[in-house]
Amino acid sequence: NVEPRSVPVFPWHSLVPFLAPTQSD
Amino acid sequence: AAPTPAPSLPPYFMKGSIIQLADGELKRVEDLRTEDFIQSAEISGELKIDSSTVERIDGSPAPNSAIIQFAVGEHRVQVSVEVLVEYPFFVFGQGWSSCCPDRTTQLFELSCAKLSVGDVCISLTLKNLK
Known about the structure:
The complex is a heterodimer of chains A (25) and B (130).
Chain A: E1 9-11
Chain B: E1 18-20, E2 26-28, H1 34-44, E3 47-59, E4 65-72, E5 77-84, E6 89-91, E7 95-98, H2 101-108, E8 113-114, E9 120-126
């Protein structure tokens, strides 16, 4: 039996850098 | 402030990688648009898109690396990051851009523009964390 190869799915926010320290409004 | 260390190359910038937006839609990394990031941040409730303007791009002592200085958000907070020259950033209205687009294309097969001073990149912050 050959198991189907799963395709990784990445969340959108993985691609965007967190550049600023968190600030409260 | 001292630059943060260069990250290792992440797999999700490889052309054809499947990216899940906040509404569940799946897109290939090369098909992402500015609106996808903005809408996903709005849906998430926890994340806020910031505009990060490239102010300087300098060479780094580390091999194949550059130090990029950004002015982040409405307060133009100065943030420096050290990245590999092939590391892509998403520029508003333009798409993926890196310091060395030829190398990005070579390594990731991801079509890329040249990142330049004045480009406005998408970045994230956590909002209303109190």
